[in-house]
Amino acid sequence: MQTILRILKQAGGWHHGLYLKIENPPYMALVIEATDESGPCGLPAISVCHYGEQNGDLMRDPEMCFELGFADGPHLNAFYYRNDYVGVEQWSRNIVRDHYVYLVSLHQQHERFAKVWDNNLRLQGFAEAFEQQQTPRA
Fold this sequence. Notes:
By secondary structure, the chain is an alpha+beta fold. The chain has 3 helices and 8 strands.
């Protein structure tokens, strides 16, 4: 998720209360926000989401949650995927009854999807759109 890491860096890094909404027509806006709870390994977590609307309700299309780690350089590690339009909600890493649960195959799927999604966000120019939104207009 190099595009998301680039945007986080431009925004001053992860912090409690982080909320970024990046408008980039004709694409759905991208929302990046710090979650209230840490990820399954106790690291800071972020949600990355496109929101659509159906019958007046916001729909995640998709949402992924990642832990932000810094060992060997900044990186994002997926642990959650949700798409409301298809009724899918998946945890590939989680704490269940005080035990760490790691679903290897599902986590690999999440990481592959995140890589494709990140490439799409890069090609669609979301980092540049964020940079332009931060530049004061004359």
